[in-house]
Write a structure and sequence with these properties.
Length: about 325
């Protein structure tokens, strides 16, 4: 059984309530039908009930077990709008604006998660990453001790000798362009949690650089070294090392030469890149040249799980991210 199949099976053991704010979208409806059929999660679709049901009928899929909510007609709308007003009144929000905004499915879905009426939310099939993240930041906010939301990708390689039987976490590939030392440390800590949640293993974190253990001197190297020190102070039980080059992080033969005393060298399963340039380029290179499966971006650091889809996502991508969000909620 592959890792994705394992994730789906683990999700089935404790199905969570996942809201899909883009409930009128064809891929969301197809995914909802398959998720309900397999028992991966309970599904809440946001949108016009007649449109969703007509679309499902034309697609010849069964969504009878899905809960459908029209935000503008919901009995919870005023309650949700009042809560949103309290959260945003210091930013100049009026009660009328709060009510209008809460009719928008992405904001309504985020409020469902905050109120505990859904366990997680997924959007992005027709919205940008910024549009997905904005309601989550305003309503759900970051987890205790985390200053910034970041992201990771679950990378599954054909060659199982790397990472955790071929699986690795890459971060941050989508959110923070140039994290400072503290932010980079936070990315490492939350990415380790993601690895534990999804890969069901002990995280082994490599703080990547173009230098290994002082082989080069530069302020960019210093940032990675300092971030590693911060992680060791905040999470002393975490297996982490840096600064380290990616070959030394992944290949035992190289590790024995470049970092023989490292606890993670040659066997890292979480790769923390120093900035968004290197992370985004790195994951796309591995995806395209090595034929790896890249699942994400998986949002990290929120108090409750909200995740982002690519606008080019497939039905399978939605199903997989629902399973991942369910595990995060567990």
């Amino acid at each position: 059984m592959g890792l994705i199949e394992e994730i789906r099976e683990r999700a089935k053991k404790n199905p969570k309530r996942i809201v899909l704010p883009e409930g009128e979208e064809k891929r969301s409806i197809r995914a909802a039908a398959e998720i309900l059929k397999e028992g991966i999660a309970e599904i809440i679709l946001l949108g016009k009930e007649s449109k969703i049901k007509n679309e499902a009928q034309s697609l010849k899929v069964d969504i009878e077990k899905a809960k459908i909510i029209e935000p503008e007609k919901s009995e919870q709308l005023k309650n949700y709008a009042d809560t949103y007003f309290e959260l945003r009144k210091e930013k100049g929000m009026s009660k009328e604006e709060a009510l209008s905004i809460m009719e928008e499915p992405l904001f309504y879905g985020a409020m469902m998660v905050k109120k505990g009426e859904a366990d997680g939310s997924i959007s992005g099939a027709v919205h940008t990453t910024a549009e997905t993240i904005r309601p989550a930041l305003q309503i759900i906010k970051t987890a205790a001790g985390v200053k910034k939301v970041s992201s990771s990708f679950l990378i599954i390689l054909k060659d199982e000798k790397f990472g955790e039987n071929g699986a690795l976490i890459f971060a941050d590939c989508a959110i923070l362009p140039d994290p400072n030392e503290e932010e980079l440390a936070d990315i490492a800590i939350v990415s380790a949690r993601t690895a534990k949640d999804l890969m069901n293993c002990e995280p082994r974190v490599a703080m990547l650089s173009f230098s290994t253990k002082g082989s080069a001197k530069h302020k960019l190297v210093d940032k990675v070294v300092k971030a590693t020190e911060i992680v060791k102070e905040k999470a002393p039980g975490l297996l982490i090392d840096g600064e380290i080059q990616v070959d030394a992080a992944l290949i035992p033969e190289v590790a024995s030469q470049k970092a023989p005393k490292s606890s993670i060298a040659g066997k890292a399963n979480v790769l923390i890149f120093p900035d968004l340039n290197s992370a985004n380029i790195g994951y796309k290179l591995v995806q395209r040249l090595a034929g790896a499966q890249a699942i994400g971006p998986i949002l990290q650091g929120l108090a409750k799980p909200v995740n982002d889809l690519s606008r080019g996502c497939s039905v399978e991508d939605i199903i997989n991210l629902v399973a991942i969000t369910s595990l995060q909620a567990q």
